[in-house]
Design brief:
The complex is a heterodimer.
Chain A: H1 3-39, H2 46-68, H3 91-96, H4 109-112, H5 119-134, H6 137-166, H7 169-176, H8 183-195, H9 211-221, H10 232-237, H11 247-252
Helix pairs in contact in A: 1-2, 6-7
Chain B: H1 3-12, E1 16-26, H2 30-40, E2 49-61, E3 71-79, E4 87-92, E5 105-114, H3 118-125, E6 128-142, E7 145-155, E8 166-168, E9 172-182, H4 187-199
Antiparallel strand pairs in B: 1-5, 1-9, 2-3, 2-6, 3-4, 4-5, 6-7, 7-8, 7-9
Classes of the chains: A mainly alpha, B alpha+beta.
């Protein structure tokens, strides 16, 4: 072997080793994931799943990056050429492929060493390209712009929420969505059902005589703070009651208690 | 309601607590909330279950003690859309906030069905009507959780629940998520919190401090 050749070969060896290492790592995580799916599917949680997917995608990315580095020789230029096919069991091959390929026979070789699509697929691709080339150029152009437009729109839609995700949660809620609830109304409504704010009759002793007072109540209804109403009923209603939450206590303090 | 029957029947009722989260939604966005609730709750395939109730709150002040602030409130409800249904009387205790770790409000709660002359009965006992309103809306349930989305109407003239006599309060629907359960079931609070999270940001269900209303 000459010096330059060995250098090149060494380079190939190193990068191939690296690639094999990365692929093996990827394979292990996939195997682990499959194992988990098959055996622990009852306990697996969604965040856990996402974690696995994250690991797989980062490993795939690193393999891709490795293939793109300048140090990696152009693997496309290397040709794998089957010298001899044999139907006999090949122990070495079996060990290398972890028992997946038993023999280097005519049955499996076309599948593993294929560099072209199957004839039927090739035929269909051919048909498609003929169809594509037979189309009028301006129609193609029109369709292309259309597709680009749709894609751009879609990308915009997708990127808007993901961009706001990065912002603080609260501010994103305010920016991305219209106000759907009002704290003021919450206060008003809860005040009404628990304390009777704004619902109190001016004269709780005789609830049926309200006619004249209604006029006075109306302007006050516009106020922001219903509890400012100075009504005899209101003053009772909003006392910080010392009443016990226990029904028994309430019952014993009852002046009309029955024996 | 028969008077003498009340006391023994009260004794037989196990103390129930109501776990409660409250919020509100603007009328314009109510449909969005209803759709979401329909998807989240049981019986998604059937149509909305509506209610239209008149509630009158009766108050009895405790005259035997010097503290004038002591009073008892009983809430009497009857369904306007189902006149044959029995009336319903409810006692609610003071809502407790508890500490930060507690996810919901908790208050004592007693529900009893009763006949329609309960109002006269309460009045005879010395109760006076404190306030009344009409609650109209939709309810959902998921497991033992109950979700109410309803609007509160004030009676313009007392005594009539006619549609023309009702004036809506505010421009929002009240949203309540509640569970009535025996004392000491803290797990349900967590479930309710999880459920409330799913309604955000449409409606913020929170444990609303009733002392803020003073």
């Amino acid at each position: 072997m000459q010096a330059p050749q060995t250098k090149e070969e060494k380079q190939l060896d190193i990068s191939l080793d690296e690639l094999i290492y990365k692929v093996r790592e990827l394979k292990q995580s996939i195997a682990g994931f499959i194992y988990k799916l098959e055996n622990e599917y009852q306990h697996i949680s969604w965040p856990n799943m996402m974690e696995h997917f994250g690991v797989l995608s980062s490993q795939l990315n690193s393999v891709k990056r490795l293939l793109k580095t300048s140090k990696m020789p152009l693997l496309r230029n290397y040709v794998l050429f089957p010298l001899r096919l044999s139907p006999d069991r090949d122990l070495e091959l079996e060990k290398l492929t972890e028992g997946r390929v038993m023999a280097f026979s005519h049955e499996v070789v076309p599948d593993y060493l294929r560099t072209k699509p199957e004839p039927e697929v090739e035929e269909r691709v051919q048909m498609m390209s003929v169809k594509a080339s037979s189309m009028a150029p301006d129609t193609t152009q029109k369709q292309l712009t259309n597709l680009n437009k749709i894609t751009a729109n879609l990308l915009d839609t997708i990127s808007v929420p993901s961009a706001s995700d990065e912002r603080e949660k609260d501010s994103s809620l305010k920016n991305a969505l219209p106000q759907t609830s009002s704290q003021q109304d919450t206060n008003l409504l809860i005040g009404a059902i628990t304390k009777g704010h704004r619902l109190l009759r001016p004269e709780p002793q005789s609830p049926m005589v309200v006619g004249p007072q209604m006029g006075q109540m109306q302007p006050q209804m516009q106020q922001q703070h219903p509890h400012k109403l100075q009504m005899p009923g209101a003053s009772m209603g909003r006392m910080p009651s010392a009443i016990k939450t226990n029904i028994k206590a309430a019952a014993t303090s009852h002046p009309y208690q029955r024996p | 309601m028969e008077g003498p029957a009340l006391a023994p029947s009260l004794k037989n009722i196990a103390p129930q607590q109501e776990y409660l989260l409250q919020g509100s939604i603007l009328d314009a966005h109510t449909d969005a909330l209803l759709h979401r609730l329909r998807g989240l709750c049981d019986n998604a395939e059937s149509s909305f279950e509506t209610f239209n109730d008149y509630e009158a709150v009766y108050m009895l002040r405790n005259s035997s003690t010097t503290q004038q602030s002591q009073y008892v409130l009983f809430r009497v409800r009857h369904a306007l859309d189902d006149p044959d249904a029995p009336d319903h009387i409810r006692y609610l205790g003071q809502a407790e906030m508890g500490d930060r770790s507690r996810p919901t409000l908790v208050r004592a709660c007693l529900d009893v069905a009763c006949s329609s002359n309960v109002r006269e009965f309460l009045t005879e006992m010395g109760f006076r009507m404190d306030h009344d309103y009409v609650a109209k809306g939709i309810f959902f349930h998921k497991g033992r959780m109950k979700v109410l989305v309803y609007k509160i109407y004030r009676l313009i003239q007392p005594g009539s629940t006619d549609q023309k006599n009702l004036e809506q309060l505010g421009s929002s629907h009240l949203v309540e998520l509640s569970v009535v359960a025996p004392l000491g079931q803290e797990q349900i609070g967590e479930d309710m919190k999880t459920f409330a999270e799913q309604l955000k940001p449409l409606v913020m269900l929170e444990k609303f401090d009733h002392r803020r209303l003073q």
